[in-house]
């Protein structure tokens, strides 16, 4: 109990106030807290609840001011730090939110909610290992919290640990079968496994529990599209837009359906609407440019990273078995034709190394090989092969200048399809190559012009452009070969592999 003059703030009054807040009656809880503060001024718990009630009404500045007053009155008030973190998280200030959650758990290590809230923020910051640790700590304290199991699944899924994520979602649903968020998250994981019908069932269950769940409508629309049920897909994507007109994803999904239906005009309109919602979205700009016939200089890093993070677990099987991709082996054969036995290249650099297919092809040709890739999931696969001496994560043009200029071989297989203008690529690779060092790469073939962004969202380059750049950067053409880069819709995509020497 808290005293004020000769009066006492009872636990019953506090519980009643918390009950109003918990029922979502934010205006009533605000007014009740203000009334009680007149009787019990400088009472930390009242300022804390008042701040939370104001936050529930979107009055962020006032919420922060009142919760900070609670902390000023009671500096060891863990619950107030947790609430302050919640307000900052809603405002999108993840650093401030994380700081307050950490203070809450420092003051009260058994504060399961603060550990779980910290995990949510860490996901938003991309600190997935730390997020998993926070959720696991929360579950040590309160093991039967469905929401925390579901959020742990989200972190595990973003790490590419789909099976572990599925186990977390299923545990969340064992604890609370009416957890619509967990049903939705389970569907997302099942889509990652290409189990579209099972995913659709999970999304449908989420919508049974929460009919106005816009994200679940959007996700169900996508799963139905991938299952070939286009009419139903349209219906649910339209419902998602109706529920939340400023929700980007259903417009993007509609664009994919229109592309599958060969309706470019409608796809472009959907992409444009999505860009109206998120005008700075570089991935959308890239997709729209590809569909509109406009050419950009390069694919955005985030586009490439997200594409291959999602693709990593099935990359090799799909590339080799479905797309008939064999570029690394063709490049290796070309190098062997020009490398006098028993000579080997001493130090190589594999740009866009992916899962290590090129590294495997170069075994016996290169003594030591380093790799660079944007996708952490690809790099994890590559690391497991024990082919590379060093692996670096990042944009190849940004990584190359940070490396020692002592490579006598640089390889870029199926990498330049995500780079339009190649001047920076040639400039940086030639700086990093030793004298007489070799540069080998593949391109998709363009008949006219220098380079072009295709509807596949990949770039093609002309032989004339490569020849001009080779001359500019003092590279001698040793060999080139026209090949089939891969199959697309079961049709061969023409390309060329090059082998150049630094003069």
Keywords:
nine-stranded mixed sheet, elongated, alpha/beta, Rossmann fold, 503 residues, two-stranded antiparallel ribbon
Going by CATH, the architecture of the domain at 306-502 would be 3-Layer(aba) Sandwich
Using the CA coordinates, give the radius of gyration.
Answer: 28 Å
Which structural class do the helices and strands define? alpha/beta
Biggest sheet architecture:
9 strands, mixed
- CATH-level-4 superfamily name of the domain at 306-502: Vaccinia Virus protein VP39
Taken from the alpha-carbon principal axes, the silhouette is elongated
Calculate the mean pLDDT score and round it. 92
How many helix segments?
Answer: 25
CATH overall fold name of the domain at 306-502 = Rossmann fold
- CATH class identity of the domain at 306-502: Alpha Beta
Distance separating the two termini? 84 Å
Count of individual beta strands:
11
Low-confidence stretches: 1-6
Q: β content, as a range?
A: 5-15%
Describe it for me?
Strands 3, 4, 5, 6, 7, 8, 9, 10 and 11 form a nine-stranded mixed beta sheet that branches. Strands 1-2 form a two-stranded antiparallel ribbon. It has helices at residues 11-22, 26-39, 44-56, 60-73, 78-90, 94-107, 112-124, 128-141, 146-158, 162-175, 180-192, 196-209, 214-226, 230-243, 248-260, 264-277, 282-292, 301-311, 315-322, 327-338, 357-361, 376-384, 396-399, 423-432, 463-472; strands spanning 2-4, 7-9, 345-351, 366-373, 391-393, 407-412, 433-445, 451-453, 459-461, 475-488, 491-502. It has 503 residues and is α/β, with parallel strands linked by helices. A hairpin with a 2-residue loop joins strand 1 and strand 2. The chain has a domain at 306-502: 3-Layer(aba) Sandwich (Rossmann fold), CATH 3.40.50.150. It is elongated, with a radius of gyration of 28 Å. Helix 8 runs antiparallel to helix 9 and helix 16 (264-277) runs antiparallel to helix 17. The model is unreliable at 1-6 (pLDDT under 50). It contains 25 helices and eleven strands.
């Amino acid at each position: 109990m808290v005293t004020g003059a000769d009066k006492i703030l009872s636990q019953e009054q506090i519980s009643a106030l918390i009950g109003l807040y918990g029922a979502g009656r934010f205006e009533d809880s605000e007014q009740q807290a203000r009334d009680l503060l007149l009787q019990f001024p400088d009472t930390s718990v009242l300022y804390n609840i008042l701040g939370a009630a104001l936050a529930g009404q979107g009055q962020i500045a006032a919420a922060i001011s009142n919760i900070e007053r609670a902390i000023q009155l009671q500096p060891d008030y863990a619950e107030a730090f947790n609430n302050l973190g919640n307000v900052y998280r809603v405002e999108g200030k993840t650093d401030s939110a994380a700081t307050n959650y950490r203070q809450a758990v420092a003051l009260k290590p058994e504060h399961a909610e603060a550990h779980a809230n910290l995990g949510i923020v860490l996901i938003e910051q991309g600190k997935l290992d730390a997020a998993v640790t926070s959720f696991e700590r929360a579950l040590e304290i309160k093991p039967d919290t469905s929401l925390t199991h579901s959020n742990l699944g989200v972190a595990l899924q973003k790490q590419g640990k789909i099976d572990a994520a599925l186990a977390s979602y299923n545990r969340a649903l064992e604890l609370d079968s009416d957890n619509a968020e967990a049903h939705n998250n389970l569907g997302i994981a099942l889509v990652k496994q290409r189990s579209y019908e099972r995913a659709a069932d999970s999304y449908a269950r989420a919508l049974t529990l929460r009919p106005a769940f816009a994200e679940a409508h959007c996700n169900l629309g996508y799963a139905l599209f991938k299952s070939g049920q286009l009419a139903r897909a349209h219906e649910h994507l339209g419902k998602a837009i109706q529920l939340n007109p400023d929700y980007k994803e259903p417009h993007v999904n509609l664009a994919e359906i229109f592309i599958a239906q060969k309706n470019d005009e409608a796809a472009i309109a959907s992409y444009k609407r999505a860009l109206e919602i998120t005008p700075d979205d570089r991935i959308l700009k890239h997709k729209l440019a590809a569909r509109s016939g406009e050419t950009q200089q390069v694919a955005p890093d985030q586009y490439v990273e997200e594409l291959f993070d999602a693709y990593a677990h099935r990359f090799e099987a799909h590339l080799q078995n479905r797309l008939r991709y064999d570029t690394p082996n063709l490049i290796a054969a070309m190098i062997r034709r020009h490398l006098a036995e028993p000579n080997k290249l001493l130090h190589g650099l594999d740009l866009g190394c992916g899962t290590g297919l090129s590294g495997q092809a170069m075994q016996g040709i290169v003594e030591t090989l380093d790799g660079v890739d944007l996708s952490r999931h690809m790099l994890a696969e590559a690391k497991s092969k024990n082919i590379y001496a060093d692996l670096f994560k990042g944009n190849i043009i940004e990584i190359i200048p940070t490396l020692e200029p002592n490579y006598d071989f640089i390889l870029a297989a199926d990498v330049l399809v995500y780079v339009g203008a190649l001047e920076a690529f040639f400039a940086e690779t030639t700086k990093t190559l030793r004298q007489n060092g070799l540069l080998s790469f593949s391109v998709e073939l363009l008949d006219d012009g220098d380079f072009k962004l295709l509807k596949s969202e990949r770039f093609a380059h002309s032989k004339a452009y490569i020849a001009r750049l080779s001359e500019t950067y003092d590279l001698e053409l040793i060999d080139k070969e026209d090949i089939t880069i891969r199959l697309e819709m079961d049709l061969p995509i023409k390309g060329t592999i090059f082998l150049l020497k630094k003069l």
